Write the structure tokens for this entry.
Amino acid sequence: MPKIEYILTVGIETHVQLKTKSKLFSGSDNDSKDSVANTLINHIDFGLPGALPVLNEKAIELASKAAFALNSKPSYFSKFDRKHYFYPDLPMGYQISQYDQPIIVGGYVEFYCNDQLRRVNITRAHLESDAGKSIHPDNQNYSLVDLNRAGTPLLEIVSEPEMHSPEEAKAYAHELYLLMRYADVSEANLYYGNMRFDVNVSISKDNQLGTRTETKNLNSFRSIERAITYEMNRQIDLIESGQQVIQETRGWNDTKGQGYSMRSKENADDYRYMPDPDLPPILLDDQYILKIQQSMPKLPKYWRQQVSKHSLSTSIIESLIEAEIEYSLNNLDYLVNLPTNQARVIANWLVNIELPLRKKLAESAKNIELSDKNIQQIYNQVYSIFESGEISSTNIKLLISQLLTMKKLPKDVKEVAKESKLLQTSDEGLLNDIVDQVLANNPQAVKDLKEGKDKAIGFLVGQVMKGSKGQANPTIVTTLIKSKIG
Amino acid sequence: MSNWPKIQQLAKEVNSGKTSAASLVAKSLALIEQKKEFQAIISTTSDRARRRAEEIDNKVKKGQNAGRLAGVPFIAKDNFLAFGAETTAASNMLKGFDAPYQATAINKLEAEGAICVAKANLDAFAHGSSTENSDFFTTLNPYDKSRVPGGSSGGSAASIALDVAPFSLGTDTGGSIRAPASFCGVVGYKPTYGLVSRSGVVAMASSTDCIGALANCVEDVALVMEVMSGQDDLDSTTVEVKDNKFSDFKKPNKQIKIGLVKEYLADGINQKVKDRVLSISEKISNNGDIVKEISLPSLPLALAVYYILCPAEVASNLSRYDGQRYGFSDANSKSLEESYYNSRSKGFGNEAKRRIMIGTYVLSSGYYDAYYKKAQIVRTKMINEFTEAFKKVDYLIGPATPTTAFKIGEFTADPLSMYLNDIVLVAANLVGIPSIAIPAGKVDKLPIGVQLMARQKEDHNLINYAKYLEELINA
């Protein structure tokens, strides 16, 4: 089938949960992660008679930060509106949202996709309160409602329909995720649904956009890519077989890797939007906006530029940027201030030794107890041992792993290395015996070497290294072998 | 002679031990029982009221000050969430609802030692002008049992006229305190929008809902308003008024200019009522102040604007009554849809349904611009007209109701005529300015009120002048 001639167009609506202590319009705890159902609610979240919403100013601050992260500015004037619909997890019968005057208008996100710099424009972003959770137990004639999440502040970021491949959409979502974390706007924990994505997908053969569908509630980057690919293929198949794409809301089953129809949008919902008379408009002045701008944390773009002077590989940089935010910030700052040679070596240790170690420890609910600062001191010392050529790369990994799991910073890293016999030895007397042993045990290799097959030397050196438990200095071993065989 | 001395006096007597809170509560409860036939009261909070009286008396015995309203019994309209009895808003929807928190206004009064003894009848959810829309029963006018007390705070106004408590609380969304005050011959006060917290009061139309007080005299109303007013963290539309010592009365030291609102003396206002207003105006000018006619050309549109905006907000505010968490829930429904449908169909009365339908209609896509948006534009125009008027005069004067109390059943078949009753009152709500209704004598043996309006946040001045006018009328 000539699928190649279709143009895919994707726009994404992202719901970002703001990291406020309390909810958007009530004093209830906003952290519903591990709480017992319906324990984080008060009269406002429950929609009791006479209960009035009161705006949490922290949410305005975080939304304003998000504005700068999106290369925009918070609006001087924005307001809240009521969006009406009936559902048991919506206690007031309306959601408080922002309809025509949102807190953020315009902006863009820049990111790399297949080494190409891409820019996706942001239409708008508005504040709204989340609904509760409805739980529908299998094979039961009832549903359950948990209102802990009801009233959680969300920032809904709406992109222009400017993405044209599943990978690009995934990369956009990922960059947005990094931005929200670096701007200190959201915990952005995907597992807990702190970010949820709705993808609008259409295909066409020309610039005229096709009928779009919306696949709702995607909660991982991979599912974004898969759901878009699935939906693109479904729409192409429909059109190729002479059918039409219906505008509809769809869901995504990640286990089956399939999308499914939820409801048709032919009878458009009428939400009867109305300005919320309980909430005065949000008025921000230049002074406030400037204060937010000045308090903006450094964003991924800044760090990428900073560390790029060390010519680190993209995958190393992105791994560092992607780690837990505090860890990332500490170590990026640390690396930026190191000489290039040292930075490149240590960046490699951070990504290939420390991060996997942390992951492994986390699996057994353990942690590295040393502070990031202490770890940096360790790295600086290990680096000077490394530079002196006294340790093999295998042993560096062992040494770092050993040091990082210590309870406190050791007085002298080199002492630890020595005690653990991880340093290379240049003691020719000791090496002599091992070399002799290896040469005696490997007559074929010795023969090959004598016949000029240079590969054999590598094998023999390796055997000596093994025999010395990594403590031998390979340069010295090579010289020794060569002199013995002559 | 009233059964009750002035509130300040009463609190003084309680604080000095001359009388006890317990005896005042007992007296009020006994009077309520005596006047039961008027059906002003939905429930009493007697147990809790007696306990609170005891606490206050103990405080006094220990030599502590029990507050500026120590031991003073009051009656709250039943759309105030209060402990000690159900909060029903006179609706089947909320019948049996026990409030888990109290209205800020009630908390503030209690903090000064006042004691809520009963909950007064109203038109269900405050929708109406007569209490005939109460899902339970109609309150009778204390001056003529065949007539309505006005509404929606009809039970609150009747209670004061029946003299069963020194003051009562009402809500005024489009005249609901001032109209029954006029019909029952008592003082009713609607403050500047936002002066008193709406938290814990069943919402009707949020952008015009105001909490106010009713009593026998301006002085009592002033003290109660002073205690209730102020910024509240639970209501972001509340405002702090600097000049908030309403109970400090000072004689205006300059010549006051009063605007006699031309549109409020037009057709549709009873001639004898007009005459009362004109004769009071004459009294004012005879006593040295200036009265001049003033026109607010948009006023004839006020009722139309009100009956677009108010139902829109009502429809929205009543969305929460869905039978799923509290309030009436139809037990026989087989699905969620059915439960919504049946709970709301059976739980709401006709007037609530009427307003939900109008409100839903005007907010529907395609109609929003034609109705809601246009109404907001006229509302803004009206605000500007009032601002201009208040550049020329200090206060506006007019009748508080177009007629005296009408007969029970007179308008029940014609809701639109019923709405006309509020024609002279809704503008103050739409504009957010303070307005007070004070008794202006009688017309054909029935009480009638006169209405005074002032600039936003000038509640203190308005109360001062109302007290002066009250004395002038009674002189």
Q: What stands out?
A: DSSP finds 15 helices and 16 strands in chain A. The mean pLDDT of chain A is 92.
